[in-house]
Amino acid sequence: MDLGLKGRWALVCAASKGLGRGCAEALAGEGVNVVITARGSEALEATAAAIRAANPGVEVRAVAGDIASAEGRTAALAACPQIDILINNAGGPPPGDFRAWGREEWLAALDANMLTPIELIKATVDAMAARGFGRIVNITSGAVKAPIDVLGLSNGARTGLTGFVAGIARQPQLAGRNVTINNLLPGAFDTERLQKTLAAGAAKSGTPLETVADKRRAGIPAQRFGTAAEFGAICALLCSAQAGYLTGQNILLDGGAYPGTF
Ligand code: NAP
């Protein structure tokens, strides 16, 4: 199916690796010009080069910087001639015990996983509405639906973003102008972040890494971890011309791990 996105411009945040990279690759594969960001420039430039090589017809721009900072956001926005598609993403907050977290830890999590997407939405939606096309996808987490106790910073910040999005996605001046805002909730995807989490679990319990990974896979009905490519493909679908009637939704991609009916 042609997703009708050829020639559009996308800003894909936090995209040198993992899920963000998967989204940038899938969009570029649909003929979308992409601006990708990450803090580390080496991996970012390597990813940009790989996307260019695979998609000679699209323009790929790399902007190094922290998307959770005002300077990082300004640079990312300035690099995109017009933003038709915005993929909000950033690293997740660290795990821990809520008793150890103070104001500083909370503000860092809120900045990266709630206020940064809100700032970027604010900077882009009205121009999208004026042009009559806009797609915003926020990468959040399955933990929004099924909170994980040690990820309290993530549960809190991402749920705040989710509540905000539920309200604004339904504004007639956005939904009525073909601007959609949805959240994609990853379960377990095989990225560097997941590998680090598994390695930390293995070290803590003194169990071999493969045993820890096998146990985690066995708890997922699909019996495997997701791939960044399949995450990117669903993201591209949400951004498609055909998806204009799909807005304000939380879409769980978890291989069936969430056990509820809804
Ligand atoms: P990843 O493999 O660690 O990749 C993270 C990417 O984001 C890298 O390119 C990283 O590059 C960039 N990044 C991180 N913080 C940034 C910042 N402040 N500004 C700009 N770029 C930044 O992680 P992932 O697995 O793709 O996860 C992406 C998001 O999904 C995270 O919020 C994570 O918590 C969430 N999530 C993931 C899973 C999963 O199973 N993978 C499950 C649930 C939720 P630099 O480090 O160079 O900046």
TrEMBL record:
Pfam families named in the record: adh_short_C2 (PF13561)
Domain of life: Bacteria
InterPro entries in alphabetical order: NAD(P)-bd_dom_sf (IPR036291), SDR (IPR050259), SDR_fam (IPR002347)
PANTHER family cross-referenced by the UniProt entry: 3-OXOACYL-(ACYL-CARRIER-PROTEIN) REDUCTASE, NADPH-DEPENDENT REDUCTASE BACG
Entry similarity comment: Belongs to the short-chain dehydrogenases/reductases (SDR) family.
The protein's name: SDR family oxidoreductase
